[in-house]
Amino acid sequence: MSSVEEFRAEIRAWLADHLVGEFAELRGRGGPGREHEAFEGRLAWERHMAAHGWTCVGWPVEHGGRGASLEEQIAFHEEYALADAPARVNHIGEQLLGPTLIAFGTEEQKKRFLPPIVAVEELWCQGYSEPDAGSDLANVRTRGTLSPDGSQWVVDGQKIWTSLAHEAQWCFVVARTEPGSRRHAGLSYLLVPLDRPGVEVRPIVQLTGTSEFNEVFFDGARTDASHVVGEPGDGWRIAMATLGFERGVSTLGQQVGFRREWDALAELARKNGAIADPLIRDRLVRAWIDLEAMAASARRGVDPSVGKLHWAAWHRGLGELAMDVCGAASTVAAGEPYELDDWQRLFLFSRADTIYAGSDEIQKNIVAERVLGLPKEARV
């Protein structure tokens, strides 16, 4: 048995032994559009994982991880998804900020921030998008100014679509710290606590009736001057590196979830007779083929922007197909006052898949300019 197969067997056995009792009730809970589900239970589960060494498996051992290889990380995410384990609550800290600090942080920052991520003692959110700087992140207007004595950054501005900010204790914020700078220049990557004066978090109610996204307002919020990752003014480079980590191997686990959704939809089509429609059959087959291609591309190491375009369009299309399989029933809420079934929630929330984490339009520009080497789009 290879080391990867041994690793896969180890995590599979551990999940089977520990997703029991109160944790068994968490199976399948949480995830995009459903982050409100059993949050405290999922937090307890993830701290249980941490106590047994199953968080941050891809991090180097010296930073609290297992030093798992790429193949082992793929195995971990696949087995976690196959076990129908609950959606992670610490993924922003573990998969985005942690690798960023390991690559670019100071030794003091690593000692201060990495252990609480491994232990799931501090949760993080991502302060990138703004009302006038969504996918066009370089238009950031949130300001960061050093206090007169140089001991703190003072942050003023607004972030929007900030996932899980209402549950997080910290936010990594892209802010403009050089007055008069424009676009990519003059930005810094600041680590800002959310439990201090000058920070207000307002949930945004979505089409699903849930509120996993938030607006975050900074009005004189303060953080230590040492809480800047990289050099001041180098925030764009750091922020882009974080986005690269965001679209890493964990997407393979996401695709296992997609496969489970496809299987359930195909079974529904068989049960309610929709499978008799040749157009429905054709769309189901095409969705299956596309999912296989997506998984093969991810294992081959496809460019993150290409991968984002692929899975976002696929998942949105599956939501549309689900409405057609459900037929007229899809237009009626499952209960009062606004109770949705899983297929309605999938359809509504997946409308955002091609927008968040970089809209399709921006991803296509990135692929054209950075992957294919085409001339840059004309900008005013």
Keywords:
four-stranded mixed beta sheet, alpha+beta, single chain, globular, about 375 residues, four-stranded antiparallel beta sheet
* Count of distinct strands: 8
Low-confidence stretches: none
Helix content: 40-55%
| Distance separating the two termini | 58 Å
Note the overall shape: globular
Strand arrangement across the biggest beta sheet = 1-4-5-8
Roughly what fraction of the amino acids lie in strands? 5-15%
Radius of gyration: 21 Å
Topology pattern, helix = H, strand = E? HHHHHEEEEEEEEHHHHHH
The secondary structure category is alpha+beta
- How many H/I helical runs? 11
- Biggest β-sheet description: 4 strands, mixed
Average pLDDT confidence is: 90
Write the layout of secondary structure elements.
Blueprint: H1 3-18, H2 39-51, H3 70-82, H4 91-104, H5 107-118, E1 124-127, E2 143-146, E3 152-159, E4 170-176, E5 187-193, E6 199-204, E7 213-224, E8 228-229, H6 235-246, H7 250-272, H8 278-300, H9 304-326, H10 342-349, H11 360-371
Parallel strand pairs: 1-4
Antiparallel strand pairs: 2-3, 3-7, 4-5, 5-8, 6-7
Could you explain the architecture of this structure?
- With 380 residues, the chain is α+β, with helices and mostly antiparallel strands.
- 44% of the residues lie in helices and 13% in strands.
- The protein is built from eleven helices and eight strands.
- The strands form two sheets. It has a four-stranded mixed sheet.
- A hairpin with an 8-residue loop joins strand 6 (199-204) and strand 7 (213-224).
- Helix 3 (70-82) runs parallel beside helix 7 and helix 4 (91-104) packs across helix 6.
- The protein is globular, with a radius of gyration of 21 Å.
